Amino acid sequence: MEDADSILSNIVASQVDIHSRYGGIVPEVASRQHLITILPVLESAMSAARADWKDISAVAVTIGPGLAGSLLVGVNVAKSIALAHRLPLMGVNHLEAHIYANWLSKDKPAFPCLCLIVSGGHSDLVLMDGHGQFKKLGRTRDDAAGEAFDKAARILGLGYPGGPAMEKAAADSEPSFPLPRAWLKGTDDFSFSGLKTAVLHLVRDNDFSDPVRVAEAASSFQQAVVDVLTTKTIQAAERLGVNQILLCGGVASNTALRDSFNGSSPVPVKIPAPGLCTDNAAMVAACGYYHFQQGKVDGLDIDVVPSLSLG
Ligand code: KG4
Ligand code: ZN
């Protein structure tokens, strides 16, 4: 990345094909793949950016939350680069990096913002009062939104990764099955495991050999998740009087969710381009940029924090 928002290269090495054989992420396989791909990815990123090491001013790397084995690969390579080229090093929180994907455009968000982070491991509502100032208001009490998409897709036989498969299946279908929504009134928390179980019972008790029925179930599930995320986030944003809602995380690439927020929120909404919602390097660089600006530079003693939270 150059300056605050111009992306020079953003190479993503997807492991989807490898993990889809197992129906989900296998931690040992993931870390070994990281080890195999990290240097070729670095080389392609440098060549796509037409950059030399002397052009680099600082290195940012994710320290957590995430799988320890995969985080260790990234952190150790980042430390080696920082040491070899005498560069400042910034260890960043993966969730904070997702939020900073919203800074990768010319029109910057206006504080205070309410951030909805919806990924494979998190459904968090976080108030952001300024750079690096976070207060967690709500979280999922069971499955994360992305995790629920993945599990429901598996129940419906739509394969892995579930989110994109569910979105594709739901595309031309009506949400005709009445599925439950957990509102958890009076809190900013979410819950999606009841919805997932409802899909399980639906499939168990009915004939789903017709793909039209599967598509309708996918659409019904997606609509239930979208309703809850949109309604609860907008209610919280109005209650808090924030200037902007920021969406981020892999699930924020979902078109139905994006359309729902854009079509119904009285509070301005900002959502990164779909490719900047799912895990990517540019969001980590954006987050690192603001750490650097604030003098938040780390030493070579940083370590991975697999259960790191935000706010
Ligand atoms: O942020 P992310 O790329 O990785 C994590 O930090 O977890 O999010 C991955 C999650 C997965 O659960 C995936 O199924 C979900 O985001 N996801 C989607 C879509 N694309 C990815 N969920 C719904 N609709 C999508 N289009
Ligand atoms: Zn992520």
Unreliably modeled segments: none
Strand content: 5-15%
Order of helices and strands: HHEHEHEEEHHHHEHEHH
Question: What summary fits the major beta sheet?
Answer: 5 strands, mixed
Look at the helices and sheets and give the structural class. alpha/beta
Give the strand tally: 7
Question: Which ligands appear in the coordinates?
Answer: 5'-O-[(R)-(carboxyoxy)(hydroxy)phosphoryl]adenosine, zinc ion
User: Count of helices?
Assistant: 11
Strand arrangement in the largest pleated sheet:
5-4-3-6-7
Helix content: 40-55%
Mean pLDDT: 96
Rg, rounded, reads 20 Å
Q: Between the first and last Cα atoms, what is the distance in angstroms? A: 26 Å
Sum up the overall morphology in one term: globular
Structural overview:
The structure is a single chain. The chain is an alpha/beta fold and 311 residues long. It contains 11 helices and 7 strands. The protein has helices spanning 16-20, 27-48, 68-85, 94-100, 145-155, 162-170, 193-205, 211-240, 255-264, 274-277, 281-293; strands at 59-64, 89-93, 113-118, 123-130, 133-138, 244-248, 269-270. The two termini are 26 Å apart. The structure holds 5'-O-[(R)-(carboxyoxy)(hydroxy)phosphoryl]adenosine and zinc ion. 5'-O-[(R)-(carboxyoxy)(hydroxy)phosphoryl]adenosine binds at residues 119-121, 146-147, 149-150, 161-164, 167, 249-251, 253-254, 278-279.
Task: Kindly list the characteristics that best describe this protein.
single chain, 311 residues, alpha/beta, five-stranded mixed β-sheet, 11 helices, 46% helix, globular, binds 5'-O-[(R)-(carboxyoxy)(hydroxy)phosphoryl]adenosine, binds zinc ion
